Amino acid sequence: MSVKRYSIKILCMKNKIAFLQDKIKLANTGGGEARIEAQHKKGKLTARERLHFLLDENSFEEIGMMVTHRNTDFGMDREKYLGDGVVTGYGTISDRLVYVFSQDFTVFGGSLSETHAEKICKIMDMAMRNGAPLIGLNDSGGARIQEGVVSLGGYADIFYKNVQASGVIPQISAIMGPCAGGAVYSPAITDFILMVENTSYMFVTGPNVVKTVTHEIVTSEELGGASTHAIKSGVTHFSCTNELDAINHVKKLLSFMPQNCEEIPKQLEYQSRDERRIYLNSIMPENANQPYDVRSIIVELADEETFLEVHKDYAENIVIGFARLAGRSIGIVANQPAYLAGVLDNHASTKAARFVRFCDCFNIPLLVLEDVPGFLPGTDQEWNGIITNGAKLLYAFSEATVPRITVITRKAYGGAYDVMNSKHIGADLNYAWPTAEIAVMGAKGAAEIIFKKEITTSDNPEDKWLEKEKLYSDIFANPYRAAERGFIDEIIEPSETRSKLIRAFKMLENKVVNTPRKKHGNIPL
Length: 525
What we know:
This protein is of the alpha/beta class. It has 20 helices and 16 strands. It has three domains: 31-255, 2-enoyl-CoA Hydratase, Chain A, domain 1 (Alpha-Beta Complex); 278-441 and 478-507, 2-enoyl-CoA Hydratase, Chain A, domain 1, CATH 3.90.226.10; 443-476, no CATH class.
C-alpha cells in the first residue's frame, strides 16, 4: 500500500472516529443543556449522574446509546434524541455485576416509547440470563402519548419480564421523579421500592383526574409522594431525604442479597468474641403489659450497626429488616410491643408476608422475635379482610424453606402464636425466654371464660377473678408446658440468645427441604 493511500485511510478513520465521538457527546447531553439545568433546579440529578454515583467508578458499560424512536406522527420524526430517554447497561456495585436502566427526564419527560421499552427489556433479559440484580432508576412522565398503543404495549412487555424475573434475580426500583399511570406497575412488581422526598411521586391517576372524577383537591405530594406511600399505603419501602441518600440505600440493600436465587448471600468475615449480651437479661419490663421497643433487642442480637429496617413507617406494630449475624445475612421479623402492643393486623400481616417471601426467594435465613397478644379485633379489621391477610403471613412462613428460627420473648397468644413461625408450621428451632407466655389468650380473659360460673357466684367476684387469673397464669403463662410438648426446643437465658442463634444458623446452613411437586401454590391474595 502506498504512503498516500495509507494516509487517506488513516484520515478516513480519524473522521469516522471524530464522527463517533460527536455522536457520543450528543448522547451524553440527553435533551440538551437547558433541560439538564432545569433538572438540577428541581434538586434532581440527571440519568447519567445517578448512574455515576450508583456504580463503581469506571465500571459502567452502556448498551443502546444510539437507539432512537421510530415514530413519525405529530412531527416526531423531526425530533429525535440518541438513547430515546433511557440509559441502559451494566456495571458493578462493590465489584458485583448489576444491570441498570436510568430514565432521562430531559428527553420527552422520560416518557416511554416502543424503543425505550425495548432497551429496558433487553437489559432485563440479560440480567436473567446472567443471574445478576436489576436496578431501575425511574423518572418518567408515563407512556409517550404520540405513540398511542405502541407505548402501552411497551409497558406490558416490561411488566411481563418483571414477573418472569421475580424470584430469579433481585429487582430494585428507585423512584427519582414522577411515576404515573402504567409506569407504577413495574416498580410495584419489583422487590423493593425507594422514593425521594419532595421530588418523586407515584400514582395511577394524577391530581387533575382525581379532581374531575371525585372532586377531591389534592397535590401530587399528598396523593402519591414519598411520605404518603411510606406511611399510609406501604407502596414504598424506603423514603429517602435526597437522591444520593436513595442511591446509598440501594447499595446497602443490595449488600444483604445474593446475585440470584441459585446463590446465597455473601458472608462477611467475622472474628468470634464473647457473644453474651447481659443487657438482654434486664430488658423485659416487670409488668407484662408494659411496652418496650423490640429494636433494642434486635441491635443487641445483630452485628454492630448492620440492621437495615424495611418499611419503617408503615404498619409499625411489626418490624422487618435485614441484618448480619456473625457476618451472615439474615432477615428479621419482630412484633413491636411499643406500637398497638405488637398485635397482628391487616397491614402488619401483609407487610411481613411480603418480606418473608422475598427472603425465601433469595436464600436469606429468617429470625422471628415473637411478642404478640393476638390479632387486632374489630369491625374495621374483619371488614377489611384480616382473615385473608393474616393467612398471607401464615402461608408465607409455611411455604418458606430457608432456615427459620423463632425466639419468643414474651407473649405468644392464640392463632398469632401459630402464625409467627411456630414449630407446627415448619420452624427449624424455637427458643423461648423464661418470660415467655404461651397460651390461647391472656390469663385475665381466660379466667373470665373458664371460671365464669365460680366468679359470678362468689361472694367476692373480684378476688375470685384474681385468684383464678393467677391459677391460669401459673399453669399456662410460661414456656414450660410448650417445652414439655417439644413445641419449644429450648428455654434460654436472654443474654445467651445471640450465641445460640449464631450456632443454630451455622448448623442450618445446608438445610434441604423437598417440597411436593406442583406448578405453584395459591396464596390467599
